Amino acid sequence: MLDDMIDHLRDRRTEPVWRPLPDATRETLRAPLDPAPCPLATIYDQFREQILPYGTGNTHPRFMGWVHGGGTPVGMLAEMLAAGLNANLGGRDHAPVEVERQVIRWAAEAFGLPATAGGLLVTGSSMANFMAVLMARTAALGADCRRDGLRDVRLTAYASASAHRCVPDALDMAGIGSAALRLIPTNNDFAMDQSALAAAIAADRQQGAKPFMVIGTAGSVDIGAFDDLPAIADLCAAEDLWFHVDGAFGALAALAPGLRHLVRGMDRARSIAFDFHKWAQVPYDAGCILVRDQADQLATFASSAAYLRPGARGLAANAPWPCDLGPDLSRGFRALKVWFTLQAFGADRLGAVAQQSCTIARHLAERIRAEPELELLAPVPLNIVCFRYRGTDPDNLNAELAADLQEAGIAAPSTTVIGGALAIRAAFVNHRSRIEDADILVEAVLATGRRRSGRQGDHGRKVEP
Ligand SMILES: Cc1ncc(COP(=O)(O)O)c(C=O)c1O
């Protein structure tokens, strides 16, 4: 199995990026469980035939959809070791908990947070943003809100109109309601308009609401834009608001000397959400919440139960336990793959991957500017390029075109909407991606666009790779 997977990763470039799952395979994967045991070799055959060829494709250098990391064999091996240990990182006194603490310290230091900082590895930035909202709520209302709820306080939060969808979801899940999130319009740089933000806070205060947090985005999901983090930090200090940064992928710009200026001000945040499974190439899932002061985590998540009482000695020592720093009790050893990855490649090389992603994106943008049939739809501040093929009914044309490329296995961009126009969106996150992959994308978009523009009615047609 190990040999096969290492070969698979080595040869990924020669394979299609993605293959649609055949109906027959999907049916097999819906079969009921046979109560009799099945030999491991048979199950592994099923894996090779029914699962391995039909992944998302994000290990491939021409996967450019959404924001997906590429993973590494180092992370894969660490996952195997972690599964062998079968550690539960909810608490207790064992080395795996120390590994997670070390990883959190490394991250806090990389982002310039003080020695009081804490954090936790979580599924992803959606969970990390949710935890930040809960901590900001507790800080605003006091610990009693954990028992009493919001009572009749109308909390309001603020984020850019291009904040990730998980941000309103976090307000929703926290019981505050997604309508309590004011989506502030963006300026020409796609960053939150600071005067609109200040005006929204003032208007809410005047109407009896209690503003409690501002979420700055470091790397917006659509185009990779950064909010003015120092200005948000100043405003939050003046208004006594919790300053949270959603840096799902953009926070790791801190590792690249050429990009570091983008995250200036992030070190003043009270909490930061980001993912090791994106630019840091750790296999899924490996999200992270960092908190300027671990006391805020304890105030929000610690609870007492007789059977979970940390002690002074023995296995029950080693407080505070991770279960008091977040919502999960049983937790896997995510930290090991992060620990291996950070050491095996080093922060500098991971920063170089981020830099390389941006170089490829800039190259793609240049190619698009030079092609009269293509149109760039947004600035390219980071690693994401939004563009389209010009033609009649462009939204439909480009949606079909993106699906054509995916189905042909040539490249897998995703789509988004920029200023009302459907865009093909290419996000470079994978360390395996090269300049030539951007060139292949351009050629494929041009060829497919020409073919489709000539045959507008022929939507279901597949493009030959
Ligand atoms: C800016 C931003 N925030 C949050 C998220 C959610 O992160 P996750 O998918 O790890 O939950 C993403 C995902 O791409 C993102 O780009």
Strand element count: 12
N-to-C SSE string, H for helix and E for strand:
HHHEHHEHHEHEHEHEEEHHEEHEEH
Q: If strands are numbered along the chain, what order do they take across the biggest sheet?
A: 2-8-7-6-5-3-4
Q: Assign the CATH superfamily of the domain at 78-342.
A: Type I PLP-dependent aspartate aminotransferase-like (Major domain)
Shape-level CATH architecture of the domain at 78-342: 3-Layer(aba) Sandwich
Average pLDDT score: 96
Share of residues in strands: 5-15%
Structural class: alpha/beta
Helix percent reads: 40-55%
Bound molecules: pyridoxal-5'-phosphate
End-to-end Cα distance: 29 Å
Secondary structure layout:
Blueprint: H1 2-10, H2 23-28, H3 40-51, E1 63-64, H4 73-85, H5 95-110, E2 118-122, H6 125-141, H7 145-148, E3 155-160, H8 166-173, E4 181-184, H9 194-206, E5 210-217, H10 229-239, E6 242-246, E7 271-275, E8 287-291, H11 294-301, H12 334-370, E9 374-376, E10 384-389, H13 394-408, E11 412-418, E12 421-427, H14 435-454
Parallel strand pairs: 1-11, 3-4, 3-5, 5-6, 6-7
Antiparallel strand pairs: 2-8, 7-8, 9-10, 10-12, 11-12
Helix pairs in contact: 4-12, 5-12, 6-8, 6-11, 12-14, 13-14
The structure holds pyridoxal-5'-phosphate (PLP).
